[in-house]
Amino acid sequence: MKILTPLFTILVATLIATNSFAQSPAASPAIATSPAAAVGAPGGQPNPQEMMKQMMEMMEMSKLNENHKLLADMNGNWNYTIKF
Q1: Would you give the distance in Å from CA 44 to the centre of its chain?
Q2: Residue 3 has pLDDT above 60, yes or no
Q3: Using CB atoms within 10 A as the burial measure, which of 22, 35, 56, 61 is most buried?
């Protein structure tokens, strides 16, 4: 009986949490903005040109910019001490 009560409590909490955090596919904002949402080819396949365009935009964001120049002053070796 001692182990049955906590197990039952965990089971009930899991069932409640599962229903609380469930999303319907229409309510998810990630579906509308994902590259897979750019459906243009027959059969539900993503449009290759649209996917390439989005990939190139992501590659452009990964290049070095002015923010990296600001952080260049902190480049080097760092020593630190941690006490517990």
Answers
A1: 24
A2: yes
A3: 35
